Amino acid sequence: MPTRAAYDRPVPRYTSFPTAAQFHGGVGPVEHRAWLQELALNGATMADATLYLHVPFCARLCWYCACHTSVVNRPESLEAYARALTREIDLVAAEAPDLKIGSIQWGGGTPSQLGPARLAAVARHLAARFERRDGSETSMELDPRFCDEALAATLREIGVDRVSFGIQDFDVEVQQAINRPQSFDETMDAMDRLSAVGIDRFNLDLVYGLPRQTCETLERTLDLVLDLGPDRIAVFAYAHVPWMKPRQGLIAADTLPSLAERAEMAMLVSDSLLSAGYLKVGLDHYALPTDPLARAAGNGRLRRSFQGYVAETKPWVVGLGASAISTLPSGYTQNTADARRYGALIDAGCFATTRGYALSAADRLRGEIIERLMCGFAVDLGEVCGRHGVSSKTFVAEIEGLPALIDDGLVRCKGDRLEVTPFGQPLVRFVCAAFDHHLRHTDGRHSRGI
Question: For 418, left (φ over 0), alpha (ψ -120 to 50), or beta?
Fold first, then answer.
């Protein structure tokens, strides 16, 4: 059996299939409008979607971050962006008036950078234009360093009932190396402030493989995070891609942990959180047994999206805001990442879609297989192929990399059932890559798989 070092190479994260590397400019506003209209064609079977609102602004810039975000503090810029969001809501409502909204997810960047009044205005406009599915969750990504009483009260007012906090690492030297000073007390105070108004579902995000990070610093951070008692903990491997995100060039490559240290960190995370009573959900999430994400993983209803792992019954996502991605019946669409251009297009009454991808029958088959592997580490190839009208025997014969994965001990086959082994689970992205018929033709760059 090879060491994991044999798989130390770039591979997609598979938050979608095909991945965003296959998006192209041949999909634009015309396709986005038509695909939105499809959401209502079959009534309740399709007219139900998650709504994702992207705010690409932060008060300060973290050097490790690979998100579409920038520092914006000018009130007039924030006001213009909030106004564009409300106008985009109107554009979507015009094309899909009967759309019922399930979960609402605010992401970024830092959505709260808009400020309480603007957040409330966008949320009220959204509530006025769309019906909401009963029991649906509203979540928001927040920076605990900028979470005062006024913001907490507004979040409660607009129905936020789950908050995600970025932590990364509580070690001071690591924080200095990534330009994100954030104390444990600041984080705990923000959680207390939100709990006081009735928001008590928390996700905390950590990152391993950061500059100057060691197993010792990570272990101390894990202990502190467990003291905070969140419902969910997401632990991501740092992707050092300075050719894509120039801000990462401020991080010296020689301060990053080695491959062996990263593998040890991943094992430390898993051992610590499982021992504390959390259940592992997919590749990089952990949740308490009572959390909806853990229950979805247990009953086979876990889904994978651009927002990570989600407990949603429907796959459709309508994205609003600069760089936001929509997952629609016919494919993916993405708005321009340029916030000014986004605002100008929306103000002109046009959708801001600049690229996307139309799904083929082969994409749908392979995408379902990849999602099952990413979510549950197993897939019944016979059952999935049968529903797509494809011979599983013929299909499996086309997967050239599968024999090597079996020989390397990453997967095993029991009839038509493909299972990722415990050894292979941390490397499940490579298993998925074997089913990715686009990968050999893409010029997109991906993060390393370990």
Answer: beta
Query: pLDDT tens for residues 148-161?
Result: 999 999 999 999 99
Tokens of 222: 């894990």
Beta bridge partners of 355: 334
Ranges for all domains in the chain classified under CATH 1.10.10.920:
361-441
- Which residue's entry shows tokens 């994965």? 405
Q: Is 1.10.10.920 the CATH classification of the domain at 361-441?
A: yes
- Residue 278 is given by DSSP the state P
Which H/E stretch holds residue 38? helix 29-38
Enter the tokens of residue 396.
């499996």
Q: Provide the 10 A C-beta neighbour count for residue 100.
A: 18
CA distance 410 to 172: 37
Beta bridge partners, 208, equal 237
Is residue 245 very low, low, confident or very high in pLDDT (cuts 50, 70, 90)? confident
Superfamily of domain 19-358: tm_1862 like domain (3.80.30.20)
Instruction: Write the DSSP symbol of residue 349.
Output: T
pTM, rounded to two decimals: 0.93
272 close to 235: Cβ distance less than 8 angstroms: no
Q: Which helix (H) or strand (E) holds 192?
A: helix 184-196
Where do you find CATH 3.80.30.20 in the chain? 19-358
Q: What is the pLDDT of residue 44?
A: 46
Average pLDDT of the chain is 93
Q: At which residue do the structure tokens 């990534």 appear?
A: 178
Helix (H) or strand (E) holding 265: helix 259-275
